[in-house]
Design brief:
By secondary structure, the protein is an alpha/beta fold. It contains ten helices and eight strands. Helix 9 packs parallel to helix 10 (282-294).
Length: 308
């Protein structure tokens, strides 16, 4: 296994939805031992600490879209952080809610364009997050990052998306909660989608490997965005958007092990961890374990834990 320089970027983003708690996520990952886990695999680890958003106008509480201006500040800050970190190593964004991916993916796309390579995105999530501020019923911007970085209209005031990710370069796995407006938009898109019924019937390795083959053939860079709710809430309860019927622990590890075997992942989001909802840190530990699998931990090297 080749060693990498892993750059931990704390992104305590809590503006993408109304339920507070994701701002505690980065420190929960640190407490769960993410640095030690990656160092034990032979990687060097640089922790940039927790970022703060760029300056932004104050948000009014009565607006339909929640936390718009703060999210704009986070988007510009995280896009620059991603672009900078990718010149030096493999950034791992410790979230924070999923609106952080407006910035992390946009920045990764800017870096990929600079080095003349296409960016691909693997979206591991119960939701498609393909809304725009104009289509969301909830007003929660954590449901909009894919809409943003693919260049959909409706993101007035946000940083311009200089290098939209082509829809055909996006693969979503784990879907099981898609509203009608998103479904219609997806049907008109080239995004690859695999819901949990497809996974139940066909397994998770096939669609992932086919996508990774495309990334490899294109000499692409690969950004992976892992949402806690990709996993079943029975094993990962620390998320405010629980949807039953998610991936098992073993399916999650299989995805991450395949990612490592491919050698294609160039950046990673760990998002939507709300430690306030966790049970003795079990979700934080599981997400750290999955991150370790994506960076080289094998089946026989699993730690044994007791939550008694």
């Amino acid at each position: 296994m080749s060693s990498q320089h892993c750059i931990l970027i704390g992104a305590p983003v809590d503006s993408g939805k109304r339920r507070a708690g994701c701002l505690m996520g980065p420190d929960a990952y640190r407490t769960a031992g993410i640095t030690e886990a990656l160092e034990s695999l032979g990687h060097s680890v640089e922790d940039l600490g927790n970022l703060t958003p760029d300056s932004h106008a104050e948000d009014a509480n009565d607006e339909l879209v929640y936390g718009r201006n703060e999210t704009i500040g986070w988007t510009s800050r995280l896009a620059q952080a991603a672009e900078d970190a990718l010149t030096r190593g493999t950034p791992v964004f410790l979230g924070g809610d999923h609106s952080l991916s407006l910035g992390s993916v946009a920045g990764a796309a800017n870096h990929a364009a600079k080095v003349g390579r296409p960016l691909f995105v693997l979206w591991l999530d119960a939701h498609t997050d393909f809304h725009t501020p104009h289509t969301t019923d909830s007003g929660n911007l954590h449901g909009t990052p894919v809409g943003y970085f693919t260049g959909r209209k409706g993101f007035e005031g946000f940083p311009d998306v200089k290098n939209p990710v082509p829809q055909e370069n996006i693969c979503m796995i784990g879907l099981r909660s898609v509203d009608s407006q998103e479904r219609l938009a997806l049907e008109d898109s080239a995004i690859l989608t695999h819901d949990m019924r497809h996974i139940d019937e066909n397994g998770i390795a096939g669609p992932l490997n086919r996508f990774l083959e495309r990334v490899a053939q294109a000499n692409g860079m690969l950004h992976v965005s892992l949402d806690v709710d990709f996993l079943d809430p029975s094993v990962a309860p620390a998320v405010g958007t629980t949807v039953p019927g998610g991936a098992t622990v073993r399916e999650g590890h299989l995805v991450c092990e395949i990612l490592h075997d491919s050698g294609l992942m160039t950046s990673l989001d760990l998002v939507e961890l709300n430690p306030f909802l966790d049970e003795r840190g079990r979700t934080a530990h599981l997400m750290v374990d999955l991150c370790a699998s994506a960076l080289g931990r094998r089946v026989f090297d699993r730690p044994t834990r007791s939550y008694q």
